[in-house]
Amino acid sequence: MDDTQATGTPQPALPPAPGADRHRSLDFADTAATLPAGQSYDLLATPDAAMRWLTAHGLTTPDVRLYELCAQRMRTLRAHVRALFAARVDGTAPAEASLLAVNQALTAVPTAPLLSWDGAEGPRRVRAHPTDQAVNHALATLAADAADLLTGPDAGILAACGSAPCDRFLLRTHGRRHWCSTRCGDRARAARAYAQRGGASR
Length: 202
Known about the structure:
two-stranded antiparallel sheet, 6 helices, 8 strands, elongated
């Protein structure tokens, strides 16, 4: 999952957070993260980077070309999805703007397969994915997944990484674990041990 910031500086990779294999919207929310020592990364920072992420997640086809406006739309929806996830984790009400943004993404494209009639095969249902609507379809898919996560059985195990300053989200799929990666878990345990030694020495 290596990528670069807009500056071109290589950024350290983190493995997908627990639950990302079940919800693409979770991995979408985690395409931007704050790391220790002032580091951060954004896997949607450029159109090429956004295209790589969409392709890796089966949300676009090779014939689609992304422009900066498309990448910006993805980053904007990501911010709103993150706001909704944070509100769910914190038990607070989200901003209306975030709800509106996700609902607009959900309703921007047809959700039901359309009826097509092929001369040889007869009638069938197909999903319309015209090239100029590819980003709309990708955003609708991610918005639908986010809505399913927030309202489904996994909502109760949605969590924020407990190792500051990391701000990724995860599903607590292994008991009480609330770290997004082994690295964050090791850092949190080291910080706790250091604090305990400091307390014992006073």
